[in-house]
Design goal:
The complex is a heterodimer of chains A (371) and B (133). Chain A contains 13 helices and 10 strands. Chain A is α/β, with parallel strands linked by helices and 371 residues long. Chain A folds into 3 domains: 54 residues, no CATH class; 245 residues, Rossmann fold (3-Layer(aba) Sandwich); 44 residues, no CATH class. The longest helix of chain A is centred in the middle third of the chain and has 29 residues. Chain B contains 5 helices and 5 strands, in the order E-H-E-H-E-H-E-H-E-H. Chain B has a 5-stranded parallel beta sheet with strand order 2-1-3-4-5, with helices on both faces. The chains are: A alpha/beta (371), B alpha/beta (133). The interface between A and B is medium-sized, with 32 and 31 residues. Strand 3 of chain A pairs parallel with strand 2 of chain B, so a sheet runs across the interface.
Chain lengths: 371, 133
């Protein structure tokens, strides 16, 4: 960091100094700030307070799919495509942490090292550190930092996912789900989970036999699912008194519909075939990603995704703050006694939760009854 | 906040294509509880330093078997210094003659680990010598 002071900085000052240097284009300060964010320090909080109002311009694109589907290779190909168009890009690449040792082997960078020296590309590996949703707990905050310092596109690459790590859909504006050819029959495509949150589905390794057939199967099943969703929405529409804005906007291909989480989804996610290793189909994918953002801005999908993200972020912070306050010396003994009372079945968990909330509100005496 | 994991970049500068040792070390350090970033084969010193900067690592481990260590390793430490990253611990491993070690240490390589070194020795050295902010 270029900024140096005569006395050691307190954490908040350090965070602000790092944020200001990062905004001024200092990549080392940006990297150090991301470490603070990963470690959830007081410096990170001070920095995020400064940076959050500046975020919201970047396109946050989630890339998810099973291990070995080619996520990192595809991200590298997309970086190349974006750079040719003169757009800056940041990547947060998440890999799993060992549940045994806490260690991690972060290998996504191997595929992207060709862009290591490009000043308009910034790649950061993150260990999931025990977080289970496909990202690290701090990936969203890290994306906000990269957004605030001015990257045009921020990719969030998840760990290799199974069927239900859908958290990335809440963290990103646009979610790309990768599949490899011949990963399963039509039944896999109509199961609940990953494909439901896809804005765009990509069958990668398009040079392998079966890629086109897999894409055709996915298109068929996803459009069958869209028909089912349409009639479900129709029924819901008739039950509701007021008309649904999105529904009235028409149900043509590419149109959206609110899902259960209040997030509009494309009725029929586009299904594309790419060969990331050769770049085949990658320009078309980037065009689809850009198109999805334009449509999302028009039909309210981006606004709704951001509303849902703000809601989740806020609740995370509220819960963290509550935990911190209950861990303070003046509250910890009472809070521990409440937990003990639940563990010993002397108090039901709902009453205990009310007592903890009362304790937070300053009514420490509320807990006396538990002893 | 509990003690955060130490972040280590394992990189292979130069043109030799043998990364078995680097991968074994990366995996072993993972099992020692480190967060290990592996960048792959045929890296220039510039690429390695750019990765170390973006990843904000505590340690850079360089594996080299090609014989070009007297050129490439001091270049990595020099570039790190130029970026203000002289607090990063730099170690080396691979095929490096004993006669070359004093000059490498003078150039800022903290330790050179030859064939037969155990993962535990490397991990213990890192834990003892890493400089944390």
């Amino acid at each position: 960091m270029a900024v140096r002071f005569g006395r050691p900085l307190d954490p908040a000052e350090r965070g602000v100094a790092l944020a200001e240097a990062a905004l001024a284009g200092d990549r080392r300060a940006l990297a150090r700030l991301l470490t603070e964010v990963e470690n959830r320090t007081a410096a990170a909080e001070a920095a995020l307070r400064l940076l959050y109002p500046r975020a919201g311009r970047a396109h946050l694109v989630g890339i998810t799919g099973p291990p070995g589907a080619g996520k990192s290779t595809l991200v590298a190909a997309l970086i190349g495509e974006l750079r040719r168009a003169g757009r800056s890009v940041a990547v947060i690449a998440v890999d799993p942490s060992s549940p045994i040792t806490g260690g991690a082997l972060l290998g996504d960078r191997v595929r992207m090292q060709a862009y290591a020296e490009d000043p308009d590309v910034f790649i950061r590996s993150m260990a999931a550190r025990g977080h289970a949703g496909g990202l690290a707990a701090t990936s969203g905050a890290a994306a906000a930092v990269l957004d605030a310092v001015g990257f045009d596109v921020v990719f969030l690459e998840t760990v290799g996912t199974g069927q239900s790590e859908v958290e990335v859909a809440a963290a990103a504006d646009t979610t790309v789900v990768l599949e490899a050819p011949e990963m399963g029959d039509e039944i896999q495509a109509i199961k609940a989970g990953l494909l439901e949150v896809a804005d765009i589905v990509v069958v990668n390794k398009g040079d392998r036999p079966g890629a086109q057939r897999t894409a055709a199967q996915l298109r068929a099943m996803l459009s069958a699912a869209a028909v089912a969703a349409e009639s479900a929405a129709e029924r819901a529409h008739h039950r509701r008194a007021g008309p649904s804005r999105v529904h009235d906007g028409g149900v043509a291909d590419g149109g959206s519909e609110l899902d259960g989480a209040g997030r509009p989804r494309p009725k029929r996610p586009e299904v594309l075939v790419t060969t990331a290793a050769t770049g085949e189909g990658v320009p078309e994918l980037l065009a689809a990603i850009d198109r999805r953002r334009r449509l999302g801005a028009e039909d309210g999908a981006v606004a709704a995704a951001r509303r849902a993200r703000a809601d989740a972020l806020l609740w995370t912070i509220v819960v963290e703050r509550a935990r911190d306050r209950l861990a303070r010396p003046e509250a910890a003994a009472v809070a521990d006694a409440i937990v003990d009372a639940v563990a010993e079945h002397r108090l039901d968990p709902y009453a205990a939760a009310d007592e903890l909330l009362a304790l937070l509100a300053g009514g420490a005496r509320a807990a006396d009854r538990t002893r | 906040m509990t003690e955060r994991p130490i972040k280590v970049l394992i990189a292979k500068p130069g043109l030799d294509g043998h990364d078995r040792g680097a991968k074994v070390l990366a995996r072993g350090l993972r099992d020692e509880g480190f967060e290990v970033i592996y960048t792959g084969l045929r890296q220039t010193p510039e690429m390695i330093v750019a990765a170390a900067l973006q990843e904000d690592v505590d340690v850079v481990g360089l594996s080299i078997l090609s014989g070009a260590h007297m050129t490439l390793l001091p270049k990595v430490t020099r570039l790190l210094r130029e970026k203000g990253m002289d607090d990063v611990l730099v170690t080396a491993g691979g095929i490096i003659p004993d006669d070359d070690i004093p000059a490498l240490k003078a150039a800022g390589i903290a330790e050179v680990f030859g064939p037969g070194t155990t993962i535990r020795e490397v991990a213990d050295f890192i834990r003892a010598n890493v400089r944390r902010a």
